[in-house]
Design brief:
This protein is an alpha/beta fold and about 350 residues long. The protein has a single domain (about 5-315), classed as Rossmann fold (3-Layer(aba) Sandwich), CATH 3.40.50.970. Helices cover about 30% and strands about 20% of the residues. It has eleven helices and 13 strands. It has helices at about 30-45, 80-90, 105-110, 110-120, 165-170, 185-195, 225-230, 280-290, 310-315, 325-330, 335-344; strands at about 50-55, 75, 95-105, 125-130, 135, 140, 150, 155, 175-180, 200-205, 255-260, 265-270, 295-305. The chain has a nine-stranded mixed sheet with strand order 2-1-3-4-10-9-13-12-11, with helices on both faces. The protein has a two-stranded antiparallel ribbon with strand order 5-6. The termini are far apart. Mean pLDDT is about 85; it is low at about 215-240.
Length: about 350
């Protein structure tokens, strides 16, 4: 009997052909689970890795593209500027599938302006936000998505209301909005498949708990608890191995309480199967209800498959622009002279 790892997909590739480098993120980080589901989604859909381009900005999440699709072109750019990079690449070759990976800081803080303008233009790409509420790469400051009242040992209590990325996408006229939880890999994978099939900007806000910095002093991750229990000294960058949070069974319409690594709890609510994701106002109502009840709604929140994409607005040709000869891109001399005369 053959090993499942060696099984090939519709185009003759194995799962290994979709993997990247070994992850250097903290053991148990939800970002690694998301990377694994990107690998599985692309493998199961039979997408050639060379037909995917991946982009990111700055942060723990933006390191993730290194860990999946090693045969795909990738570009790690400036903080909050991933959308511009993705747009330029997409215009160069409209046949490529674009995957952008960002974080709650990279998108909801420094990159919020680029995020909002990208979704209103509806550039065909998958935009993944690996959302953990903290700046893990710079030692755990509150991010713009951190909930009000969250207390971290080095940051105090967060006094501000959070930015809801899914709601921002929805009111910004995104044509595909979904939210999931890294601990529900099956749902993450299925949403990724839908996003990869969507012609427009597909926003996936994926809650991915930080196992290192989103903690409190009364938990085993804190310095105070460690000193009281005479834990051996070790490198301050060391993070004890923790198991990824995986939900055993999570049915449509169900509400589930999930205990995170730091002992805190998040309440998830999966959308009912009868929910209509094409009703924008129902989607907004669902998000408002979830906020009042402290739920984290997961699933496909909104989709408009008929909204024109940026390619449609710009009337781009099917042939990749980076393959078109220069002589075909430049207007003829007679055309330029006519334009100049019309402007005289």
């Amino acid at each position: 009997m053959s090993d499942k790892k060696d099984e090939t997909n519709a185009i003759g590739l194995t799962r290994s052909d979709y993997r990247g480098e070994r992850s250097t993120l903290c053991p148990g980080c939800g970002h690694n689970t998301i990377s694994a589901q990107i690998i599985m989604a692309c493998y199961e859909m039979g997408i050639p890795p060379e037909k995917i381009a991946k982009f990111s900005g700055i942060g723990c999440s933006s390191k993730s593209p290194t860990y999946f699709l090693g045969q795909s072109f990738g570009f790690n750019g400036l903080h909050g500027r991933m959308p511009s990079l993705a747009l330029g690449a997409a215009f160069a070759d409209t046949s490529m599938k674009i995957i952008g990976v960002s974080g709650d800081g990279d998108t909801a803080s420094i990159g919020l302006g680029q995020f909002k303008h990208l979704i209103r233009r509806n550039l065909p790409m998958v935009y993944i936000i690996e959302n953990n509420g903290v700046y893990g790469l710079t030692k755990g400051q509150f991010s713009a998505t951190a909930e009000k009242g969250l207390e971290l040992k080095h940051q105090g209590v967060n006094p501000f209301l959070p930015i809801d990325i899914a709601k921002e996408a929805l009111v910004g006229n995104a044509s595909f909005v979904a939210r999931s939880f890294a601990g529900d890999p099956k749902q993450v994978r299925e949403l990724l498949k839908a996003a990869l099939s969507h012609r427009g900007t597909a926003v996936l806000d994926i809650i991915s708990p930080c196992v290192s910095f989103n903690d409190r002093e009364d938990t085993l991750h804190s310095y105070k608890w460690g000193r009281q229990h005479q834990a051996p000294l070790h490198d301050i960058a060391y993070v004890p191995t923790r198991k990824s949070i995986i939900l055993d069974e999570f049915k449509e319409g169900e509400i589930k309480e999930v205990i995170l690594h730091d002992g805190s709890m998040v309440i998830l609510k999966k959308l009912e199967q009868a929910y209509d994701p094409t009703d924008k106002w129902q989607a907004l109502q669902i998000l408002e209800e979830a906020e009042k009840n402290n739920w984290l709604v997961t699933g496909l929140i909104y989709v408009d498959p008929n909204q024109p994409s940026l390619y449609d607005y710009m009337n781009l040709v099917e042939e990749p622009m980076n393959r078109i000869p220069v002589k075909d891109l430049r207007p003829q001399r007679e055309t330029l002279e006519k334009i100049n005369q019309d402007m005289a």
